[in-house]
Structures are given as C-alpha cells and as structure tokens.
Amino acid sequence: MGYAGYAVLGSGETAEPILLTSCNINPELNPIISQPAVGFGWKNAADQSHYANGIIDYRGSLGFDLPVSLWTLLNEWAITKRIYAKNFEHSPDGTCKYQYSGAAETDGNLNGAWCDSLGISTSADSTLQATLNILALTRSVTVGLGYSENETGILAASCDTFPVDPLNPLNANNSPIPFWRTKARILIDINGTPTDPDADVNTLSWGIDLANNAQIIKACNAGTGTYGTASAVVMGAMSVTGNIELYKHSGIWDPVLDNPIIASTASLAITVENGLTDKTITLPAIRLDSDDYSLNINGPVSRRFNLKAMGGKCINSVIPAPIIMA
After folding, report:
1. Among 251, 123, 259, which residue's Cα sits nearest to residue 184?
2. 40 burial via Cβ count (<10 Å: 0-12, 13-18, 19+)
3. 90, 59 in Cβ contact below 8 A?
C-alpha cells in the first residue's frame, strides 16, 4: 500500500524524512535501436529487430509538503552545491527499498542523486509544497518486509525515524507550513532601497521554479557489462522563473506603466515565518514575462505576474545566483 512508501534525503545524522505526496522515480533504459534492411517479407516484417543497450540512468519526480527542517538540505542540493549529488532513499510500497548511496563531493563521483529541478509554491487553503526532479546513475535495491510482516512500517517503527513534528506540537505549524505563514512581494528599487509599490495588496498565491539543466556525459570508454556507464553528470545554466497573484479591492498597480518590473530594479522577496529565524527566497533581479489581469465573472479579479529571474546583478560586490535561499 502507498502509505508504506517513504523517502529520506541525506544520510547519517543529517538525514531528513520527506512528507511525500507523490513519488515517481524509475529507470531510463535508453536502448540504441538499429533499423537495418535484413530481408523481411510482408508477413514477418517488424519495425525493430536489432538493438543494443545504452547507458542506464534513473529519473523521476517527488512531491512533498515542505517543512522548515528540510530548508538547508534543499538549498545545498538545488543551489549552493548543485553540482554534487546527495544520498537519497525511497520506496513506493515499503517493500522494495531503493538506495542512491555513496555520494561524495568530488569531481569523479557517479553515485547518489542530483537535483535537476526544484519548485516551491503555495496558495489559499494549501500547505507550502515542493516538487523535485532527480537524476541518478546508480542505485541498489533492498527487499524489505512483506505486506503482512510490515506491521509498523519503515519510518514509523521508531519515534527517532518518524517524519519530524507530527500532530502539530504547540500549534507551531512547522510541519507542514500553511500558506498563511508565507509572504511574497515584488519590490522595486527606489533610490537604492527595495520598496513595496503597494503595501496594502494581498498575495493570493506564489511559486518559483528552478531548473538546473543537468547533463549526462556519455563517452566511448571501452566499457564492459550489460549497460554502459556514464562518465559524469554536469550542471547547465540555472533557469529560474516565478509567479505571484495579487488582489486588492481598488485594483492592482500596472507592471508596465505604474511600476515597471525590469531586471535592474525589481526583485521578488518571499518570507516563510518560522517563529525564530524566518526562511527566505529571493529572486534578486526579475523581469516581467507576462501580465494576466483578466475578467473573472464568477469571483474576485486578481492579477498574476509571471516573472523571469535574471543573472548578473551585483550585490555587495558579488554577483549571486538568480535565486537565493536563506
């Protein structure tokens, strides 16, 4: 049953269980198909008859409610150490356990799992949600308990391994985080100070999407075995987009005529209230991709800005990534 499935990011003392809502990670077999003319007749002609195995890899996505406890690991995996893999483990049913282990922060590492993309978003009556796409070159499988023997599960068998903060202790709302504990604003630089064009505007939803554009290096290296082995995983240029939906009784400011959203002066600032130290996501330089201010005959009229994060902005003599998690 699906409730027996789980995922864990990291290893050892830093390992963090994930509050999964979906998980779909499977092998990509990548066969190399030959389509020669070999004398078939009309009665036995097949479109494929000869092939060789390519280089196998493992790809897929997982969705989860994002707790504060995962913030640092996600920041490293997706942004600050995105060229390195991390140890990762998941199971769709609690029986077959897949491990992507042996990750190391070295150039020659082929083990573990890389973060190919990350999306974070929320909206009314929702939790703070995340989606990840991963890429791996190797994995191992361990057969766990059968259905009837799996009485208490893999993580729920011990309070030490169960996902953090069940039952909303102290009404802290940390695991998961509700939408109303987040805040997203577009800021416009006025005389060197990032300024909210209209502090009375309400944010109805927001989201960011980061793509690392991971590439697999496949070489002619006289390999042996059943499947080929990749030589490396490298990261392409980081692509980041965002969106924000705003509402106000008296209307929303115009992003072209009133307060132009241009990369040299505009930014997107997101705050996740944490009680002690707030978590933040910043797109330091954004331009307007599209502006949707359409009639909604059955409800309130909101305005949605789709944004593109740009690189090259200098902050404190440093050019940062197009997205900053802190």
Report:
1. 123
2. exposed
3. no
Distance linking the first and last C-alpha atoms of the chain: 37
Q: Tell me which residue has tokens 């799992």.
A: 113
| Local structure of residue 171 (DSSP, 8 states) | G
How does pLDDT run along the chain (326 residues), one tens digit per residue?
788 899 999 988 788 999 999 999 999 999 999 988 889 889 999 999 999 999 999 999 999 999 988 999 999 999 999 999 999 999 998 888 999 999 999 999 999 999 999 999 999 999 999 999 999 999 999 987 788 888 888 888 888 888 888 999 999 898 899 999 999 999 999 998 999 999 999 999 999 999 999 999 999 988 888 999 999 999 999 999 999 999 999 999 999 999 999 999 999 999 999 877 899 999 999 999 999 999 889 888 999 999 999 999 998 899 999 999 99
Tokens of 161: 């391994």
Residue 10: count other Cβ atoms within 10 Å of its Cβ. 19
Q: What Cα–Cα distance (Å) separates residue 85 from each residue in 13, 71, 103?
A: 17, 17, 6
Quote the pTM value.
0.94
Which among 86, 89, 85 is positioned nearest to 6, based on CA atoms?
89
> At residue 70, what is the residue type?
L
Q: Is the bond preceding residue 176 a cis peptide, omega within 30 degrees?
A: yes
Q: H-helix or E-strand containing 285?
A: none
3-state secondary structure 155-222: CCCCCCCCCCCCCCHHHCCCCCCEHHHEEEEEEEEECCEEECCCCCCEEEEEEEEEECCEEEECCCCC
